[in-house]
Specification:
195 residues; mainly alpha; transferase activity; Inner membrane-spanning protein YciB; cell membrane; membrane
Length: 195
């Protein structure tokens, strides 16, 4: 059996880092889905989601010595809305969380752009460098993504059973995001500034 290769090349580390980031982001949602699938108890599943999210943030901090701004914002919103659901024993709060959060994000990035600022660049500027036109296009595309997600969630929690809404939350919202990421790729490639 050969020993694993230790590489100092940062290019080799990117796929591992991307996979780790994906698991830190998706792991809590998958545990939320699994807990509800096994126990059909939304309040217990919310506890699992909140706990797993806090653990994921702690792992992120331990490994990277930073917590991504969007992850921190999402965790605060989750603790707030999840806490309200648990305290009042009312599933409405956790169900409206995606709507409220995505509408706030859409308003923040679109409003900032209309005021001549670039909040999306402030959040993600360290991860990518784009032309001003590129930032403008991506900002409006992401605002549309957040609005679409919020509207879809608003419809979903009103017409679906709780179990079906959880499936939508985990896989449907992720699917909406994935579609917009795929749409974003050509724009990012066209307007990216090379180092």
């Amino acid at each position: 059996m050969t020993e694993p290769k230790l590489s100092t090349d940062s290019h080799d580390e990117k796929p591992a880092h991307s996979g780790r980031r994906f698991m830190l982001d998706m792991g809590p949602l998958l545990l939320f889905f699994g807990a509800n699938y096994l126990y059909h108890d939304l309040m217990f599943s919310i506890k699992v989601l909140v706990g797993a999210t806090l653990v994921a943030l702690a792992i992120s901090w331990r490994l990277e010595r930073r917590i991504p701004m969007m992850a921190a914002f999402g965790c605060l919103a989750l603790v707030f809305f999840g806490g309200l659901s648990l305290y009042f024993d009312n599933e409405l709060f956790i169900k409206i969380k995606p709507t409220v959060v995505t509408f706030l994000l859409a308003a923040a990035i679109a409003g900032g752009r209309l005021m001549g600022r670039n909040p999306l660049a402030a959040i993600m500027g360290g991860q990518m460098k784009l032309t001003d036109k590129g930032w403008g296009l991506i900002t409006w595309l992401w605002a549309l993504m957040f609005l679409t997600t919020g509207l879809a969630n608003e419809i979903a929690w009103r017409v679906l059973s709780t179990d079906d809404w959880i499936t939508f939350k985990v896989f449907g919202i992720t699917g909406i995001s994935l579609i917009f990421v795929i749409i974003s790729v050509p724009l990012l490639q066209k307007h990216q500034i090379e180092d």
